[in-house]
Design goal:
With 216 residues, this protein is mainly beta. The protein is 4% helix and 66% strand. A twelve-stranded antiparallel β-barrel has the order 1-2-3-4-5-6-7-8-9-10-11-12.
């Protein structure tokens, strides 16, 4: 049961490896395409994101996170994560450190994660809070982001994910977005995600997302 809950949590396309380690020898890849616009009339804003994880040991996970950072600029981050604490009641905490580039500038990205699996009469699920600070070395710019995720697997071939994405960028107002999605199992280790993004505060855009996940 615990292994299932951990798997569901990792399939939420986390901000990074999160509170649950991937596990020695296990790997994960996510490739997604997102379209955003205020009214969905051309031209659209589009971008792709690639996320990779690999379990070096049972507790150490390394990975690659590309796409867009908190500021909306391109990012390429290599990271390492490690669980920090697991309580007897099932609360999990993890830390992470990333190095790479944001908008072409060298950057550091430390992070802190919390996660907890649960079981209901409708199925197994997870709750997670993933927070990072993006620090650009050349300018001293600091951007903060925190994603709150609630996921539920109520059918062997389908999951729902409800996510609140929040952030504070150095030169922009704080933002909050609601990002619900459905995940469909299309193979033994493959899933397809279809989702939306709705700007709530400091963001007037709408978004559509199509992604693929695979464990190996």
């Amino acid at each position: 049961m615990l292994r299932l809950v951990v798997l569901f949590a990792l399939l939420a396309e986390p901000l990074f490896a999160g509170a649950w380690p991937r596990g020695k020898g296990n790997s994960f890849v996510s490739l997604s395409f997102q379209l955003t616009d205020r009214d969905f009339f051309a031209p659209f804003n589009t971008y792709t994101a690639l996320y990779l994880e690999h379990g070096v040991t049972e507790k150490i996970t390394i990975g690659l996170d590309t796409g867009r950072g908190v500021s909306g600029k391109n990012k390429t981050i290599l990271f390492i994560s490690h669980p920090l604490l697991r309580t007897d009641s099932g609360h999990n905490f993890g830390v992470d450190l990333g190095l790479g580039y944001l908008a072409g500038e060298p950057a550091i990205r430390p992070g802190l994660s919390y996660g907890r699996g649960f079981s209901t009469d409708k199925g197994s699920g997870w709750f997670a809070v993933d927070t990072v600070m993006e620090y650009t070395l050349s300018t001293g710019r600091i951007d903060l982001k925190s994603d709150i995720t609630y996921g539920l697997s109520y059918h062997p071939t389908m999951k729902t994910i409800l996510q609140l994405q929040t952030g504070i960028s150095a030169f922009d107002p704080p933002f909050a977005r609601f990002a619900p999605s459905l995940v469909f199992k299309t193979g033994e280790k493959t899933h397809i995600e279809v989702g939306l993004a709705i700007g709530l505060v400091g963001d007037s855009n709408y978004g559509f997302k199509l992604g693929m996940w695979r464990d190996f």
